């Protein structure tokens, strides 16, 4: 049985540069996943947000396993429960 590949027409968008600040270890994990998927960090974040806006999970089970490995590698211990309790470290 052969798999048929569907090619969609690109959707033209306007992207803007942003100065978003993220937790250091989280950013390392995100960059590692983007590198592994051979996409930009921006493309990864857009994909995560678009999935979240529709209430869908952005990652496959395989990618979730890879994320756990990267979290371990970069000592990222944060979970979703921590999302509204993060406080920036004083300089």
Q: What is Rg?
A: 16 Å
* Topology as a string of helices (H) and strands (E): HHH
Q: How confident overall, as mean pLDDT?
A: 93
Which percent range describes the beta-strand content? Answer: under 5%
Helix content: 40-55%
How many DSSP helices? 3
Unreliable parts = none
Alpha carbon gap, first and last residue = 59 Å
Largest sheet: none
Question: Class by helix and strand content?
Answer: mainly alpha
Approximate shape: globular
The number of strands is 0
SSE diagram, text form:
Layout: H1 24-37, H2 41-53, H3 61-73
Helix pairs in contact: 1-2, 1-3
Structure commentary:
With 91 residues, the chain is an all-alpha fold. The chain has a domain of 53 residues. The chain contains 3 helices and no strands. 1% of the residues are buried.
A few lines on this structure:
This protein is 44% helix and 0% strand.
Which features would summarize this protein structure in a list?
single chain, 91 residues, mainly alpha, 44% helix, 0% strand
């Amino acid at each position: 049985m052969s798999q048929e590949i569907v090619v969609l027409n690109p959707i033209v968008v306007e992207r803007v540069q942003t100065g978003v600040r993220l937790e250091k270890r989280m950013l390392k994990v995100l960059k590692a996943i983007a590198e592994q998927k051979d996409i930009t960090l921006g493309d990864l974040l857009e994909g995560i947000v678009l999935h979240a806006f529709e209430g869908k999970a952005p990652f496959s089970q395989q990618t979730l396993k890879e994320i756990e490995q990267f979290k371990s590698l970069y000592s990222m211990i944060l979970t979703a429960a921590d999302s509204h309790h993060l406080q920036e470290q004083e300089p």
